[in-house]
Amino acid sequence: MIIHLKKLAAGTCLVISALQPVIYAQDKVSEQSVTLSLEQAVEYAVENSKTLKSSDIDLEMKKRASANSWNVFLPNMSLTGTMNRSTEYSPSSAAMSQLVASITGSEAATDFADEESRWAVVGGFSFGWTFTPAYIGQIMQSRANYELQKITWEQTRRDTIINIKKIYYGLLLQEQSLNIQRTTLENARKRAEQAEANYRNGLIPELSLLQAQVSYENQKPDLEQAERSYRQSLDMLAFLIGLPVGTNITLNGTIEPEYVKVDYDTLIEQYGYSSLDLQSLNENIHLTNLGLKTLTLATYFPALSLNYSWQPAYMGKAFSFAGDIGKDDMWYDSGSLSLTVAWNLTNMLPWSKNQQQAKDLKQVKKQLAMTRETLSENQKVQVRKAVDTLIESQAQIENMSRNISLAQRAYDATLKAYRSGTTELLDLRDAENSLNQAKLGLANQKFNYISALLDLENTLNTTLTRTDGNGEKE
Prior knowledge:
Number of helices: 10
């Protein structure tokens, strides 16, 4: 019996095999105890998930980029100030000294090596503003990127929630399997004690006693292994939802699915275009179209550039700069104002970089369209598969519920016969194994139903629980 039970229990644990190996060894293990319902586990995960927090940061960056995308229209302005000391003396510098003296009416420096004569003070201000129609396309792309990131954020959130729900129900399934093993071990212990009493009273041979004792001892290591595996799985759940690893978690829930009426055609008609994956692809196609438009504007439309610069220079004694502020004869300035229309003709050539980028974007657009078509067809396959699984699982749950009742009656009758000595231990173990298989099979089917329903809701980006397949209340 225990061999069959071990195989079945191993099968039930496949759903959480991804939880292992777990980060189990810790220097200090938390002694905190928490009772978790499904809703609380999801709340912990949403609040503490590192993946979601990273996605929040990405969303905030895209939002800020979208809100400030108009800054491409801001002009470039700069203000400079320079003090320059010349270290070179030449006849030309002496001539410049004479020229400056004639302009300012001051006495020309007879020795250009004079320290003050080596210094010059120059300021500068520049203003530049450029406009191209491509800026409008860039603003639209920033906003489209934000919309795409919102879809990505929602996908990450839904994936996190669904994964936590599956892990939680998987743990409930593992817990139920563990409880059955505990009950089986306890029954084996009682049979061993009864066999020992019967052997002392001369009611059974020694062989029967040894069989009962071996059966009991063989089940102990399996139960201990199952308990260790369950504790490790709870540690992984704690890690995933943000609780300290080692927290004593008690699950407050049951594997009881909420049955829904589903119809493939109705689901596809109502929710066939609600998939977040499809929405993401649509937004990517839209973003590619905007990229093409922006590139076209940059290629075939000119850019308008407005520039202004002003550069005042102080011509007096360098160290008298502060005292000469406001004296027109000590200053001169230069500046310019320009308005330019620039048209890059090279970008229009078929072999230019812009034209090649445009061709690449057109190819990407075709690829996205094919991917969308493939995804749409695959979604139909997944929906049909999920609907079939739900219908099949519900039917099997109803049949297995009846089988448990029959298996329980068979076990009770066999146990009564074993106690009266009219049947063998092997028959009792077979009856118990059949009962355990029925219980675990029912739990597995309930888990399969819940898992298929979660996948269906994720595929269609909707909630079907408490509603029928038409989206209406039952």
